[in-house]
TrEMBL record:
Pfam families: DinB_2. The lineage of its organism: Bacteria, Bacillati, Actinomycetota, Actinomycetes, Kitasatosporales. It comes from the Bacteria. This is DinB family protein. It comes from Streptomyces sp. SID14436. InterPro entries: DinB-like, DinB/YfiT-like. Residues 25-133 form the DinB-like domain.
Length: 148
């Protein structure tokens, strides 16, 4: 956090000693290449906050969510966020899935869309960022093996 935001970022999201590069809308184009740490932090925050705004206090903000500073803490935060989101999903019924604005998450279109669309969006975020994390990890590992 002491080093400030990286190139093309205008702020650091999150709480704690570390922050995740962010920028207000409209986002920079082309977007910067994001790291495994950035992607894990983004997913962890999204899952935890959407769970809170679906079945929790409905008060957590990006400023409340700590940004982990090491691999183990990042994986633990992702697991906690995924568990919270799963618990929130298990607590809704079919009627809730059709409810517009069920989730009050402030950084998305949640207030204007049926909850089933929000569930779809969160799932595709986990899938695409998870795939990116796996690819970057594999590329990094191969780079080390081949000595390039």
């Amino acid at each position: 956090r002491a080093d400030g935001p990286g190139p093309r970022a205008t702020l650091l999201a999150g709480a704690g000693a570390f922050g995740r590069d962010a920028a207000a809308y409209p986002h920079p184009w082309p977007p910067p290449f994001t790291t495994i740490a950035w992607r894990l932090s983004h997913l962890s925050e999204m899952l935890a906050l959407r769970a809170d705004h679906t079945a929790g206090s409905r008060r957590l903000t990006r400023d409340d969510h700590p940004v982990p500073g090491d691999r183990d803490a990042a994986v633990a935060a992702f697991r906690a966020g995924a568990a919270a989101w799963r618990k929130a999903l298990l607590g809704v019924d079919d009627t809730a899935l059709d409810t517009v604005g069920l989730c009050t998450y402030p950084h998305g279109s949640d207030a204007e869309e049926p909850f089933i669309d929000i569930v779809w969006w969160v799932n595709q975020e986990v899938l695409h960022h998870g795939a990116e994390i796996a690819l970057i990890r594999d590329l990094y590992r191969e780079r080390g093996v081949r000595g390039h």
